[in-house]
Amino acid sequence: GESVGLHLPTLSVQEGDNSIINCAYSNSASDYFIWYKQESGKGPQFIIDIRSNMDKRQGQRVTVLLNKTVKHLSLQIAATQPGDSAVYFCAEFVNQGGKLIFGQGTELSVKP
Amino acid sequence: DAGVIQSPRHEVTEMGQEVTLRCKPISGHNSLFWYRQTMMRGLELLIYFNNNVPIDDSGMPEDRFSAKMPNASFSTLKIQPSEPRDSAVYFCASSLRTVYFGPGTRLTVL
């Protein structure tokens, strides 16, 4: 039969707008989270991380928010640029920092 | 720093052949991960090592897959015999705290 691929959630934004990418994680014992960006033909690239004792962390044009109550992460990208177009993954460390598990990913498309 | 180095970058082989993928982690990192990425299953963790010791290989799909880390600067992932369903991009990653990925090996099994 025909294979069915993953249908990644897609977010389409206008250049210059802010983007918010959401992620639900699975393990309440996870204590460290990372956002990655993956461009076509490349490996995942580290963007920003956050530990479970924090609610918010800011980087250059990016902010990560962590809500442990509902096991939710978000990545905010300010003033989105065409070069931000990629698939974004959240990843959680389980087993006390040993095992990094990835979410499904969200495809961000930036329209000029 | 050269980052995580993987070889080959592309591999095309025929069903039944042995395939060996290679990885050189970032110097000083103490953990190494092997992932597989497909459209159907996304990014899957196959196995990870800490200080050269395999810690969790529960993601290895079956006995045809094996991984070794003989020293802190080298790891291999071997598939024997290979099958068409093994076609995927295989990533190696290493970490001391943050996990950094290599460029991947695109494997095609005909």
Describe what this molecule looks like in 3D:
The complex is a heterodimer of chains A (112) and B (110). In chain A, 0% of the residues lie in helices and 53% in strands. In chain A, the strands form two sheets. In chain A, strands 1, 3, 4, 8, 9 and 10 form a six-stranded mixed sheet that branches. Chain A has a four-stranded antiparallel sheet with strand order 2-7-6-5, with no helix packed on it. Chain A has no helices and ten strands. With 110 residues, chain B is mainly beta. Chain B is built from no helices and eleven strands. Chain B is globular, with a radius of gyration of 13 Å. The mean pLDDT of chain B is 95. Chains A and B meet through strand 4 and strand 9 of A and strand 4, strand 5, strand 9 and strand 10 of B.
Discrete helix count of chain B: 0
Q: Classify the beta-strand content of chain A into a percent band.
A: over 45%
Number of strands of chain B: 11
As a percent range, the share of helical residues of chain B equals: under 10%
Order of helices and strands of chain B: EEEEEEEEEEE
Order of helices and strands of chain A: EEEEEEEEEE
Radius of gyration of chain B: 13 Å
What is the arithmetic mean of pLDDT of chain A?
90
Biggest sheet overview of chain A: 6 strands, mixed
Portion in beta strands of chain B: over 45%
Q: Quickly give the structural class of chain A.
A: mainly beta
Uncertain runs of chain A are none
- Largest interface (CB < 8 Å): A-B, 22 and 24 residues
Average pLDDT taken over every residue of chain B: 95
State the distance separating the first and last CA atoms of chain A.
39 Å
Please summarize the sheet with the most strands of chain B.
7 strands, mixed
- Assembly classification: heterodimer
Rough outline of chain A: globular
Radius of gyration of chain A equals 14 Å
The termini of chain B sit apart by 36 Å
